[in-house]
Amino acid sequence: MVRNRGDSAVSPVVLTHAAAAPRRMSDLVAAVLRDMEDLAVRRFPQWLPGAEQIAGPGGAGVRAVRMLAVRLAAGDRHFGPFLADLAEAALSGRPCTARLPAEVRAAGLGRVLGTGSTIAVTPPRGMSGSEAEVLAAGCRWLERWSGLHVQCRLQEPPPPAPRNPPAAPRNPPPASPNPPAAHPEPSVVFRGTHVALPGASPGLSGARVARGRPHHASRAEQRLESVLAGCAWAADREWNQGYHAHPLTNPIRPDLLWREARVIVEIDDDSHLRPEKFAADRQRDVRLQRDGFVVLRFTSHAVLSDPWSVAREIEDFVKRGKR
């Protein structure tokens, strides 16, 4: 038994999710979040102190549970609205609307389900290597944003049988008096932020580890990083690191950089629409393009509304640059 914020007693649970072969990480994330919301609704009002005395949505019931949920969030302007929506859905029996970003929903549901809870993702049979990579990336994302332990077991395919097996020796050696113990079939276990995929090295791609970090005041940079953190092709990204074309030139510090692929990503807020800033951006882009870089610019709104589409567009240029 553990205590959640608000001193409510919340016992840890194990949520089992039977995953379909995912084409996109967002597909897996959306499906697991729906399961988490269904479980949270079933456990209501255990996770919301004071809601036990509210019989139903009639009268001031909905308003009361929404106020209790905001209080549970301790004034957090992100979690409060989501927990209020979740409490209203549980009280009224209506589905919870997904009107808030996936990161906020995952963090709020992790808080509701309770510390020590586990999400057990059961992968489908016959997944390809790319589908297994997407599944593992989604599990890493869920663990990072929900704060819960996510477990996923990926079975390695058996080694192919040789086409021409060697003939048995005519005089086989005598059997050992102490034969070695049989070992179980190898499997790959996802735990924490480490995963090994069938046919891949432990580091997914063997690339360098990401350098730098998103700016602490940029929600768009942080949200894009939450997606890139689960992408093997993005392992050698550099956040807010300097680039020097020549010792006598001023350094440039792009938002996101892939040096080997010669790709730079800039995330622009509304300030980049001002004439002086717009002109300075164009001059800098020309300078970088002369040095052989592809410069991709995205608005903060585009990144916040659909970071997966932005990541897919970046992936295309990064892979081309490395080739």
UniProtKB/TrEMBL annotation:
Coiled-coil boundaries? none
Which portions of the chain have biased composition (kind: Pro residues)?
156-183
Q: Name one Pfam family in it.
A: DUF559
Superkingdom is: Bacteria
Region (Disordered) spans which residues?
153-187, 200-220
Which segments constitute the DUF559 domain?
A: 255-317
What's the protein name?
DUF559 domain-containing protein
